[in-house]
Amino acid sequence: MCAAARGNNASDRTQFGRSISVAPGEEVSEATCFGCSIRVRGHVAGDVTAFGGSIVVEDQGQVDGDATAFAGSMRLDDSGKVGGDVTVFGGQIHRAPGATLSGGVTVMGGPGWAVVIFAIPLLFLGLLIAFIFWLVQRVTRPRVPVTA
Hints:
By secondary structure, the protein is an alpha/beta fold. The chain has one helix at 111-140; strands spanning 12-16, 20-22, 27-28, 30-34, 38-40, 43-44, 48-51, 55-57, 62-63, 67-70, 74-76, 81-82, 86-89, 93-95, 100-101, 105-108. It has a six-stranded parallel beta sheet, with no helix packed on it. The protein has a five-stranded parallel beta sheet with strand order 2-5-8-11-14, with no helix packed on it. The radius of gyration is 23 Å and the shape is elongated.
């Protein structure tokens, strides 16, 4: 179940459960990863997005667009470049002094944010299911006549 899915552009990379590595000298247009991490040592002309994984832009790695990590961290090594914004939700950002970042940085750090985002909807879903069970039991319960 680790098959790659290709977008309209042949140089887009999308993976499910299998990490993406952009090698030195290699260029891709977009990189998106679900449940895995992205390692950039080459050039990404567009955005890099990881859901449930981390993004690493190593030395000489370059991302022209935005870099976004949901429930993961971001690491920018020396000589690594990100031309757009960096957003880290539910993780941390580690930036080397020699890294270049042209856009803004947004960090909603720590795993607590990811827990809140996933746990609250699950809590409401659980309460809704419990309420439905309660209603079904109440409606289908046989009525017993009260004797005096």
